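ok so i was messing around last nite and threw this chain in just to see what happens. nothing serious, just curious
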Amino acid sequence: MSEDITIEIIRVVKVIGIGNIDLEKIQETIHEIKYSFGSYHATFCIDFLSLASKITGEDIFSLIRNTNMLYIIADTQDAASMNTFREIGKIAYTTKRLTIGILITHSLSNDEKADSSVSLKTMEFKKYVDCSIPVPHEKLSDELLIGSIKAIYHTAFDCGWLDFADVRSTLKDAGLANFGVGQVSSENRDLRAAENALSQMLLNMPFKKSTIVLISISSGPEFSMLEIDNIASMIQERADDDVVVIFGYFVDECIGDEIAASIIAVGFKSEAAKNWEVTAEFSLPSFLK
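result:
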């Protein structure tokens, strides 16, 4: 008689905050994920690390060993932190870890806008990660950082119909990312969540210029497949006809009767990525304030 084969999968995700980035609130909110399908058992561990602005190459190799996906958070105005960001990013990228950069950006003065070298320095971080999400400093909050991490983490690891390889291939070398989130309850919550996410993208880059869209949908235990389909359909209708859409759904009991839609748009056509600016009039939805 043949014995059943048990498959155990462990994936490791690390979130690294460099310099003065405080990870305490994020760490309280995002936890490891476990699920089983028959003999298949998967554990997705997430670790949080706060680093000073200097670290050696040997320490970086040790830090990211056995890591499958890496988030690096840094402030673009902190030169020492950005140097560390670049060093970690280069090593992670060359060792084929999926690397997501979350960069806190600052508005340029008129003199800085006129100085092309400043613009080049601001955009330089794109070379060191697979996918970069700029977050404007004036709108920075723990909730916004949590949302940008959750959107990828849960879609990659907490959706029964998605494999990590799907998300990895989508975000590998994806470049600049635009991020939006909407979360509402009551009547038409699905369509309103999708509309809010689309209308509150962080960057003023045309959504139709993206070639790949990752949609992360979450709700409490009470939901319908029609709601998920409505959100995915509305977002896809606003995108380019040839866009590649990957979406995932997970249950988040913390949000009660609300439904949340997060959008990460990547693969922007060259002219859109080259000329992006942080949208000055961007306002956070009420649940993020």
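not much to say yet. The chain has one domain: 7-288.
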